[in-house]
Amino acid sequence: MDAVSIERAITPKTKVIMPTQLNGRVADMDSILTIADKYGLQVYEDSAQALGAKYKGRSAGSFGLGGCISFYPAKVLGCFGDGGAILTNDVGIYNTVKLMRDHGRSEDGNVSIWGYNSRLDNLQAAILNYFFDDYEKIIGRRREIATLYYNGINGIDGVILPPTVNSDIDHFDIFQNYEVEVPNRDELKEYLSNKGIGTLIQWGSKVVHEFKDLGFTQSMPFTENIMRISLLLPLNMSITDDEVDYVCQCIRGFYND
Ligand SMILES: Cc1ncc(COP(=O)(O)O)c(C=O)c1O
C-alpha cells in the first residue's frame, strides 16, 4: 500500500485502513498508523502473504487491531488444502472470531451469535506444524534466491525488481513471490514458457474493481498498469541456483541485454 495515496482516498464513510503486505514485504506501517491515528481509523492487515515478514523488527499481522495469514498451498507456509489464521491482541475480536469460526458456538455448546464453519482441520494443522519447523530455513533460501535473481537481472532497461534483501534495514522480506515489473510482459511470459520456464501472473492480471459483475464503477489506472506489467518468476524450494541462473540468462536474452 502506497501510504502517500491514503489520505486522498479517505472520505467521511471510511472506517478502516487495510494494508496488504504484498509478496512478503510489510508496507510503510509508520505512515499508515500515523494517518489512521489522525483520522480515527482502525487498521486491519491482510498479511496473507507475509508470515514472518517484519517492519522495524515488528511482525506482519501485529500492527493493527487484527491481521490474517493464509495457509493456502501456494503460500510459503501452505497446507494441503485451505487454511488460515487470524492474529489479534484485542480480546473482544478474539472472543468473537473464536465463536464465529465454529458456527457461533462456545466450548460449553451454547450458540450465541451467527457464525461459519471455519475450523482448521486437524490434518491440515499437523501438516502446518511439520512444515513450520523448517520455516526459517525456507525463508532463508527464498531470500537467497531473491539475491540470485537480483544479481542476475538487475540493470536491464525498463525492468523493475523488488528491493534487495539488505537494501533497507527497516524491512525483513520473506519473498512470498519474486514479482518483477517488465516491458512487454506477456511476450516475455511466452518467451520464457518456450524455454521451459513457468511464470505466473498474480490474480490473472486483474484487480478486484475490474470485475464489473461485483458492481464496481471506479477506474484505477496506476494500479491497473502495475497489474499489466507484473510477472512472478519461479521461486520455490526445489529450484536450483543453476536454474535461477538459466532464468536470468533467458530474461537477458529476451531483452538483448
Ligand atoms: C494478499 C492476499 N489476501 C488474501 C488471500 C486469500 O487467502 P485464502 O485463499 O487463504 O483465503 C490471498 C491468497 O491468495 C492473498 O494473497
Characterise the protein shown here.
By secondary structure, this protein is of the alpha/beta class. It folds into 2 domains: 3-132, Aspartate Aminotransferase, domain 2; 135-254, Aspartate Aminotransferase, domain 1 (Alpha-Beta Complex), CATH 3.90.1150.10. Helices cover 35% and strands 12% of the residues. It has helices at 3-9, 29-39, 91-100, 122-132, 135-153, 185-194, 221-229, 241-254, and strands at 16-17, 42-46, 54-55, 58-59, 66-70, 84-88, 171-172, 178-181, 230-233. The strands form 3 sheets. Strands 1-2-5-6 form a 4-stranded mixed β-sheet, with helices on both faces. Strands 4-3-7 form a 3-stranded antiparallel β-sheet, with no helix packed on it. Helix 1 (3-9) runs parallel beside helix 2 (29-39) and helix 5 runs parallel beside helix 8. It is globular, with a radius of gyration of 20 Å. The chain starts with a helix and ends with a helix. The relative contact order is 0.11. The protein binds pyridoxal-5'-phosphate (PLP).
Key features of this structure:
single chain; Aspartate Aminotransferase, domain 1; four-stranded mixed beta sheet; binds pyridoxal-5'-phosphate; 2 domains; alpha/beta; 257 residues; three-stranded antiparallel beta sheet; Aspartate Aminotransferase, domain 2
Question: How many β-strands, per DSSP?
Answer: 9
Named CATH topology of the largest domain: Aspartate Aminotransferase, domain 2
Number of helices: 8
Query: How far is the first residue's CA from the last residue's CA?
Result: 32 Å
- SSE ordering: HEHEEEEEHHHEEHHEH
CATH architecture of the largest domain: 3-Layer(aba) Sandwich
| Structural class by SSE content | alpha/beta
Mean pLDDT: 96
Strand content: 5-15%
The stretches of 5 or more residues where confidence is low (pLDDT under 50) are none
Number of domains: 2
Q: Give the overall shape.
A: globular
Class of the largest domain, according to the CATH hierarchy? Alpha Beta
Radius of gyration: 20 Å
Q: Percentage of helical residues? A: 25-40%
Q: Would you identify the CATH H-level superfamily of the largest domain?
A: Type I PLP-dependent aspartate aminotransferase-like (Major domain)
Physical arrangement of strands within the biggest beta sheet: 1-2-5-6
* List of distinct ligands in this structure: pyridoxal-5'-phosphate
Largest sheet: 4 strands, mixed
